[in-house]
């Protein structure tokens, strides 16, 4: 495995985890872009490299986007800039897919918490580069569904919170979606995911959803690798990764059949 860093701007970069393809002359590999959480305040380490290794082990080339957040010294409304940063990752992949041994028809996107907001936002507002599918882990889908508690969370002024409601952005062009959440998430209420699923159903977007009864916000892999304390080790929730991989493989199979 090789790891390389690619600078996007002064406050954003992407780390690329590249594995050697055992059969490079026969096929290229699928890839996944990970947007960690952190409340647009910081980038969660527990949702970065541990997730990268988990998907790397399943045969994916992995990108972890360290997008612009508040603790990088920003004081202006940078939210729309993060969309451009994510777009830049897709550009990088398209420019280097041959050298990186990546299948351009099998590029997926994953977002956790606030990173789920960014991922769902991009998936509904993309230009040129549409993800094959999107995985949302306990995502924020609106700033009015319980997170943040108030707008003073941001160190800048938002002209209108309504324009950041990604559930309302869902259309018939939204990519297939895998989504999961816990019912007693006290930081980002499950309504964020329920509302998003409601909109996916309205537009007949294929989706798979899993809701677990117990678990704090920010579970990531829900195991010892990502748990800051024992409350974050949830064996019943750990199944989401297996189910997500199975869902990804289903999307890949649909690509191969088309």
From TrEMBL:
Pfam hit, one: BD-FAE
Signal peptide range in chain numbering: none
A single GO molecular function term of this UniProt record: hydrolase activity
Domain BD-FAE-like: 22-121
Keywords: Hydrolase
InterPro entries tied to this protein: AB_hydrolase_fold (IPR029058), BD-FAE-like_dom (IPR049492), GDXG_lipolytic_enzyme (IPR050300)
Top-rank taxon: Bacteria
UniProt-listed PANTHER family: AB HYDROLASE SUPERFAMILY PROTEIN C4A8.06C, PEPTIDASE S9 PROLYL OLIGOPEPTIDASE CATALYTIC DOMAIN-CONTAINING PROTEIN
Name of the protein in question: Alpha/beta hydrolase
């Amino acid at each position: 495995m090789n790891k390389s860093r690619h600078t996007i701007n002064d406050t954003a970069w992407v780390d690329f985890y590249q594995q050697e393809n055992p059969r490079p002359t026969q096929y290229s590999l699928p890839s996944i872009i990970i947007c960690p959480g952190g409340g647009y305040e910081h980038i969660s380490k527990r949702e970065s490299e541990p997730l990268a290794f988990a998907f790397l082990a399943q045969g994916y080339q992995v990108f972890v986007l360290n997008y612009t957040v508040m603790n990088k010294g920003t004081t202006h409304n940078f939210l729309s800039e993060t969309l451009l940063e994510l777009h830049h990752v897709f550009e990088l992949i398209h420019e280097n897919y041959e050298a990186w041994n990546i299948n351009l028809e099998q590029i997926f996107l994953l977002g956790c918490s606030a990173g789920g907001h960014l991922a769902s936002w991009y998936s509904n507002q993309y230009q040129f580069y549409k993800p094959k599918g999107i995985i949302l882990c306990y995502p924020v889908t609106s700033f009015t569904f319980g997170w943040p508690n108030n707008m003073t969370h941001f160190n800048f002024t938002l002209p209108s919170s309504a324009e950041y409601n990604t559930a309302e952005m869902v259309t018939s062009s939204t990519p297939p979606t895998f989504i999961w959440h816990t019912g007693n998430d006290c930081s980002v209420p499950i309504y964020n995911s329920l509302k998003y699923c409601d909109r996916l159903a309205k537009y007949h977007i294929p989706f798979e959803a899993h809701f677990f009864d117990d678990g704090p916000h920010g579970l990531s892999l829900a195991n010892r690798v990502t748990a800051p304390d024992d409350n974050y080790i949830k064996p019943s929730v750990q199944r989401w990764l297996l189910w997500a991989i199975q869902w990804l493989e289903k999307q890949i199979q649909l690509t191969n059949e088309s």
